[in-house]
Amino acid sequence: MTIEAADAPGTDRAEKLTAAPMAGDAGFLLAKLHAAGSVLNNRALAGFGLKERSFSVLALAACGLEPTQREMAEFLSLDPSQIVALIDELEGRGLVMRAPGKQDRRAKTVTTTEAGDAVFRQATSAAREAEAAALARLSVEEAGQLKTLLRKALWG
């Protein structure tokens, strides 16, 4: 799957509006980049039967940290019911499985199955291509700096 640079953020026809004062607001800029990136991500992940949110859950399940459903909900800023629905979908496809937590058996951890690991590896490649398209106007160094600054703003 190839992501076209023309689909990257900032290539829309309303470029004259970049002179508007709101075009300098961090909240607006983050929302706009997220919206454009989501379109690219969802397009790239469609071939795997995934969308951005389901891929995020799959990625957390595959990370080796055995997150609980609650931890996933908090980390992804989603309602717990949304996480349950996403996990149900992935579990129904045989990509993830729930298990009792090691610390609290009432908490359910989520991990990938062998099939889930395979889909995750393939989808990750498509997601990286989508990210590159979303950040196409930045150099590799600038993209790295952006990610560093975003992580710092979020978690210090």
Q: How would you describe the overall organization of this protein?
A:
The structure is a single chain. The protein has 156 residues and is mainly α. It has one domain (26-155): Arc Repressor Mutant, subunit A (Orthogonal Bundle), CATH 1.10.10. The protein is built from 6 helices and 2 strands. A two-stranded antiparallel ribbon has the order 1-2. The longest helix has 21 residues, at 114-134. The protein is globular and about 55 Å long. The termini are far apart. The model has no long low-confidence stretch (mean pLDDT 92).
List keywords for this structure.
mainly alpha; Arc Repressor Mutant, subunit A; 2 strands; two-stranded antiparallel ribbon; single chain; 156 residues; 6 helices
Shape: globular
Largest sheet strand order:
1-2
**Which structural class matches the secondary elements?**
mainly alpha
User: Which CATH class?
Assistant: Mainly Alpha
Radius of gyration from the CA trace? 17 Å
The fraction of residues assigned to DSSP E strands is 5-15%
CATH topology: Arc Repressor Mutant, subunit A
CATH superfamily: Winged helix-like DNA-binding domain superfamily/Winged helix DNA-binding domain
Largest sheet: 2 strands, antiparallel
DSSP strand tally: 2
| Count, helices | 6
Order of helices and strands: HHHHEEHH
Low-confidence stretches: none
CATH architecture designation: Orthogonal Bundle
Helix content: 55-70%
Q: How many individual domains? A: 1
Distance between the termini: 35 Å
Q: What is the overall pLDDT average?
A: 92
